[in-house]
Amino acid sequence: MSIKINYSKKSYNKLKVNTVLFVDEKFNLKNLKSYITNKENSYINDLLKNSDLKKKIFVFELNSKRKIVLISINKDCKSADIESLGAEFYGRVNYGKNAEYFLMSDSINMKLENFVGHFLHGVKLKSYEFKKYKSKNETRKILINISGNKNIPNIKNQLKFKALEEGTFYARDLVSEPGNILHPDEYAKRLNSLRRDGLKVKIYDKNKLKKLGMHALLGVGMGSIRGSYLVTMEWNGAKNNSKPLAFVGKGVTFDTGGYSLKPARFMEDMTYDMAGSAAVVGLMKSLALRKAKVNAVGVVGLVENMVSGVAQRPGDIVKSYSGKTIEVLNTDAEGRLVLADALSFTEKKFKPKFIVDLATLTGAIIVCLGSEYAGLFSNDDKLSKQILNAGEKVEEKLWRMPLHKNYDKLMNSKNADMQNINYVGGAGSTTAAQFLQRFILNKTPWAHLDIAGMAFSKYGGALNSGGATGFGVRLLNQLIEENYE
After folding, report:
1. Which stretches of the chain score pLDDT less than 50?
2. 125 with 169, same domain?
3. Contacts of 36 (CB under 8 A, 6+ apart)
4. How far apart are CA 379 and CA 403, in angstroms?
5. Shared-domain flag, residues 363 and 470
6. pTM value?
7. N or C: the chain end with fewer CB closer than 10 Å?
8. What one-character DSSP code corresponds to residue 252?
9. What's the confidence (pLDDT) of residue 150?
10. Domain holding 108: CATH number?
């Protein structure tokens, strides 16, 4: 679906065009005389008398050329509510041929800043489709003309919304790509192209990683014919030399489980095991496009976890970048190995104000929270609160889970400093996070987001139509915009 938004003053003929009108929760039409005829007013009022007004959107097809869409707004609603209404509106009009709508921004008075911008943001996010590999890709087009002077975002805010959409869509595109296309070599190549957006990109290949001593990350990719990489993306938008905000992502482009082989059923979904890295990339792209006044760095570890004669074995012991040794008891607990090196490297090299990592790390978090919340683990209460608040505002919700030193004994190894899984059983997500915490060496504020249940949706969500969600891009942008700009 192609959505075009037109803010220019295009002439409006209330007799011949599709019209989108905002009304109060009682669907009061008395202030809409300049948008609809008396005849239409009477007709719609008659239909509303026998309708369930708990519904938020009604579409009235008056003739072959004219629809009137009424959208009920509670004046105390939040931006996330408005975005959800935009997404619902898209779902109601996404059928038939190409269409043009006039959205009348003056049809209701709203206190919420950028009210129309948030509505259109929801429309755009819901409209995303990944049809790159369809041999017949017939794209419908919807043109939305914005009429009126109230409730609409200024040019600066229009660009902010656009940057956020582009970053989210870029993340969704990356997650949607098949494993034979987006392997680590191709992924690193695509990230290098982000230089044109203003990001400083540095790629560490296998040879550089060996010199750095990143054997935990390298061990995961040993079985693949593709390379393994660590990529850093820097955005320096602050006027001072303040410490950067750091975001780290797991980028396992395909995960067979290695010799701890996954079941065949649903293994095809393991193309999205790099969704944490995609969120980091999408965020960094958004920050660059909107010229965010902040210093930030994104770090992603890119590997492919395959089976071969040279693949890592259960029982292998590797030395991480931190100097700590890890006994690999299960090669399918690979994401934490990638993050272990990436976290220690990020902390040492960039000395950030905080580190947030994102990863599709454990199936246990899905058992616990399903597809409604991501798991949040952190060593810092202030950072946790900021992330939780940001998630509530953009409807990318998180639930804080426990960390405690008593879990450490479950990850201790007889043969190395630690092992990569808890063989006793239970607390799978917490012990994974407890493992990661060992690689934060200098007490930097840190949060780990386990997004395994949120990165991909088979049935669609409020702001996506199924498939890759781009979870994390809008959440972290809100965190930055609200607290650090």
Report:
1. none
2. no
3. 14, 19, 21, 29, 44, 68
4. 8
5. yes
6. 0.96
7. C
8. E
9. 79
10. 3.40.220.10
**pLDDT at site 106:** 86
Helices 79-93 + 381-394 axis angle, to 10: 40
Residue that terminates a domain, selected from 153, 176, 192: 153
Q: Determine the pLDDT at residue 13.
A: 78
What domain range is 39 assigned to? 2-153
Query: What span, in angstroms and rounded, lies between the C-alpha atoms of 364 and 429?
Result: 6
Domain count, the chain: 2
CB proximity list for 211: less than 8 A, separation 6 or greater: none
Residue type (1 letter), 420: N
In contact, 303 and 341? CB cutoff 8 Å: no
184 and 56 in a single domain? The answer is no
> What is the identity of the amino acid at 161?
F
The answer to whether residues 181 and 133 belong to one domain is no
Q: Which residues are catalytic?
A: 262, 336
Q: Is 413 exposed, middle or buried (0-12, 13-18, 19+ CB in 10 A)?
A: middle
Residue 52 pLDDT: 87
Nearest CA to 219 out of 259, 263, 175 is that of 259
Take residue 5 and report the two structure tokens written for it: 């938004």
Retrieve residue 187's tokens. Answer: 């992924």
Cα 375–chain centre separation:
14
| Strand order, beta sheet including 66-72 | 2-6, 141-147, 99-104, 18-23, 66-72, 57-63
In this prediction, residue 1 carries a pLDDT of 64
